[in-house]
Each structure stands twice: as C-alpha cells, then as structure tokens.
Amino acid sequence: MVSKIEQDHQRFKQIIHGKIRKDLRKFLSRGELIGREGKKFVSIPVHDIDIPTFRYGDNQGGVGMGEGGEGQSGSGPGQGGEQEGRHLLEVDVTLDELADILAAELSLPRIKPRGQHRITTVRDKYSGIRPVGPAALRHFKRTYREALKRHIAAGTYDPDNPVVIPIKNDLRFRSWNEVKKPQSNACIVYMMDVSGSMGEEQKELVRLEAFWIDTWLRRNYEGVESRYIVHDVKAAEVDRATFFSVKEDGGTRISSALVCCKELLDQHYDPGDWNTYLFHFSDGDNSSDADNRLCVKLIDEELLPRSNMFGYCQVTSAYGSGSFHGVLAEAFKDGRADELGPKVVLSKVNGKNDILESLQTFFRQGR
Length: 367
Fold this sequence. Notes:
By secondary structure, the protein is of the alpha/beta class. The chain folds into three domains: about 1-50 and about 85-105, no CATH class; about 120-180, no CATH class; about 185-365, Rossmann fold (3-Layer(aba) Sandwich). The protein is built from ten helices and eleven strands. It has helices spanning about 5-20, 25-30, 95-105, 140-155, 200-220, 240-245, 255-270, 290-305, 325-330, 355-365; strands at about 35, 40-45, 90-95, 120-130, 175-180, 185-195, 225-230, 235-240, 275-280, 310-315, 345-350. A six-stranded mixed beta sheet has the order 8-7-6-9-10-11, with helices on both faces. A three-stranded antiparallel beta sheet has the order 1-2-3. Strand 10 (about 310-315), helix 9 (about 325-330) and strand 11 form a beta-alpha-beta unit. Helix 3 (about 95-105) crosses helix 5, helix 5 (about 200-220) crosses helix 10 and helix 7 (about 255-270) runs parallel beside helix 8. The longest helix is centred in the middle third of the chain and has 21 residues, at about 200-220. The radius of gyration is 28 Å and the shape is elongated.
C-alpha cells in the first residue's frame, strides 16, 4: 500500500528532475555539476524550489502560551535585509537518474551491446510472494486480494459499500531469489593531447564531457572500466587524477596515443568480451602530414575493427590549428559505417554550451 508521504516524495522527485532537465545546459556552462568520484550520487544545486516547512497557526491556548514578552524583530545589530531570498537546494541524484535525464533531453536511444556475454554476475530477482517482509517490499495488489478473499469467505463483503481493510494476516511482500545474469562489459579509453596549446580551459571542457560520457555508458552497461592516456610527442597511460591535472608542454604527435591505445587493447580487452569506446581530445594540432596519414591508418586498420566507435572531440584553443578534424573528416567520409551507422564520429566543442550537442553527436545512433 503506497502511503501519502511516499506519493509526495515521488512527486517531489518529479519536480526536481524537471528542474534539472530544464537547466541542464546551465549546469554545464556554469560548472555547477559536482561529481563525487567513486560514489553513485552527484550533488545538483537547484534554484527556486520551495522546501516543505511547518507553519504555525493562530493558536489561542495550550502549551507555550505562558507569560513572557514577544520577541523584537528587525532591530539591533545584524538586522536582516528586506529583499526576498532566493532558495538554493542541493539534492542528491543517482547517476542512473542523471543519465535518464540526459537521454530524455537529447533523445538518446539505449545502446545495443555487441559481442558475447561470457561474464556473469549474481543478482537478486524479485520473483515470489511471502507473508512476511519489510514495509518497503509490501505488495499492494496481493495484500488487497488476500483481504478481499477473507471478507468474501467471512460473508462481510458488501458490494454496495466495498470497504476492504487489510489486517496483519493479509499482508503480502515481495521475495527474491539469487539469479545469474549475463553481464555486458564496456571499456572506455580516453586519450588527450597535453601539448603546450592545450591549457586549463581546454582540459576543463574535456573533464566535463568525459563525466557525461561515463554517466551515459554506465547506464547502459553492467561493468565499465575507464582507462586514460595522455600524449605530447610521446604517450603514456595514467590514472584519472593525473589525466586531468598533468601540465601541458611540448609538441604533438597524435599517433603516439593511438599506438598506446592499441597496445592497451591487445593486452587487456578481447573484442569478443568487451564493448570498447575510444575518445580522443585535442585542439587539432599535429606534428606533420606524415603523422596524420599514420593516424588514419592506425584508426582504420587497428582500432575500428575492435571497437564500437572512435570519437574525436576537437576543443577550441587560441594556439591550435584545428586541422586534424578536417583530416579525419576527409579520410572517413563514410565513417567506415556498419549496420548502426558511422563508427568514426567527430565533434567540435568551442565552449561548455557545446557539450550537450557533442554528446548527442556521439551517441544518437545507439552504438
């Protein structure tokens, strides 16, 4: 039986989700989205939500009405202002809820995993009914049915006044069994140019986009591993903290990151077991035309055959040429498409307002 307070709570969640969806672009553009690494929640600041409070009426007696003077308001040091305050409420939202809000806003289809599901996990499946259990698992329909059967059997059921009140013996609760479930796995490899032309502003754009990519893919897969590669003229795998904090310096050789990525996949990720997503972030500078041709060859022959997609996101820099986007666009005019569409997907991000469109470009095929 759903209580009134549970109904109110669900309604409040719907209001919060509506506010988040309406202001989704604003959260990104102002950097108000705060991810809690390693947790299942993020804190979202939501403006202009009325928080439920107790209000006192005009009581004419009772407790608290004894002698004593009324307090003085609006005088003395620290006097409050006269302008109406703006309510700011921070709410915790699960990453799954956030991903669903993102999908609704961008009309993203659910991803269809490829490959075989060889790895299994043990999950609880609610598949039965029992007479005892916690209130959170109470089954309303089954409880009502038991109460109705009891009233009919006792001859106390009146069709003209169909009041059915469950008692303790009528209560029914969902029960669960442990079941083995195939687990779809995904690997995300992030590659970022950290040459001298990639500054803090560019890395902040990459950080925000990577957060949303992680959020969406984790909503679609049971198991997700993220790996990080940075490069200038040389490439190396690093941890997440280093990926977003390493200082930029030196020239650029993009092929070094692609070779490092190939070696990583060779060692750890069998394409028969993993759905692999590759994302490269750069301002578009590269060392030479020869390296551009090598990059195209590596992507086409080594990376595309073992991945769901290769996404290239070019972030604008005052010092970058931006030419690599054109190189890939020319080399992969058809995107090396299969039944789901292009596997090479390109986007440009000039600022935080472009991140949502970039995500839509990457995932609108449901790949």
